[in-house]
């Protein structure tokens, strides 16, 4: 299953920087716990207040960076003043099997590109390692993140592999563009105005995901979230009654995964845990 999540640039609008950073840490946790492949930040100029200019995207990118690469990648930045309050993600390494995929894979960053078909990569070992670029893999550029398979640390035995690093990727795109991506799959809006997501509906959603598989033939879905006190209908300029009636376009489904919420407002990070936990049960 290929999973993409869309969150607005305004999702930390009501919080001071320290609390906003903590909040984004739990957004990153939700994405990691439920195996999200891509986390996209879409602009919501009408809702931004304290934190704009890429604050949300920067903090989420930082969270997705392994601890052993953060100093190399980020140095010191004002947006990351309170990065220490974010919970650790503890992204599980991808463990291979068989002679071609022994050991585990982890993220590295290219520090130097040589003219001999080799690159130097910092992947959290004692020193950067020099690795040949596989013939079928495009030569990565300096500062690009790559996946390294490590079969031994003493002595170091490692190789580049042509696949996405463990964890989720972060990017930025407008909402309509993200929904129109070739690999978007089934597009789902999470909203208290949507249809209640009962257990029987999960089978229907799973079948719909299989019908709109990505370019590699894998079932896929994209789920979008709103901001505190500014849900998706407000961001899209939609009448909540029209959403309840199921007459709004852009999304294939509008779902409510907290149908009897006891709080007046469900925070974005809370909605992510609730919604992704439900969708994770699709078979």
Structural class: alpha/beta
Shape: globular
Count, helices: 8
Number of domains: 2
CATH homologous superfamily annotation of the largest domain: SPOUT methyltransferase, trefoil knot domain
> How many strand units?
12
CATH topology of the largest domain: Alpha/beta knot
State the low-pLDDT regions, or none: 95-102
Percent strand = 25-35%
CA-based gyration radius = 20 Å
**In the CATH hierarchy, what is the architecture of the largest domain at level 2?**
3-Layer(aba) Sandwich
What share of residues is helical? 25-40%
How would a crystallographer describe the biggest sheet? 6 strands, parallel
Question: Overview of this structure, please?
Answer:
- This protein has helices spanning about 15-35, 55-65, 65-75, 175-180, 200-210, 230-235, 240-245, 270-280; strands at about 1-10, 40, 95, 105-115, 120, 130, 145-155, 155-160, 170, 185-195, 220-225, 255.
- With about 280 residues, it is α/β, with parallel strands linked by helices.
- It folds into 2 domains: about 1-90 and about 165-280, SPOUT methyltransferase, trefoil knot domain (Alpha/beta knot), CATH 3.40.1280; about 95-160, OB fold (Dihydrolipoamide Acetyltransferase, E2P) (Beta Barrel), CATH 2.40.50.
- It has a 6-stranded parallel β-sheet. Strands 3, 4, 5, 6, 7 and 8 form a 6-stranded antiparallel β-sheet that branches.
- It is globular, with a radius of gyration of 20 Å.
- The N and C termini lie close together (about 10 Å).
- The model is unreliable at about 95-100 (pLDDT under 50).
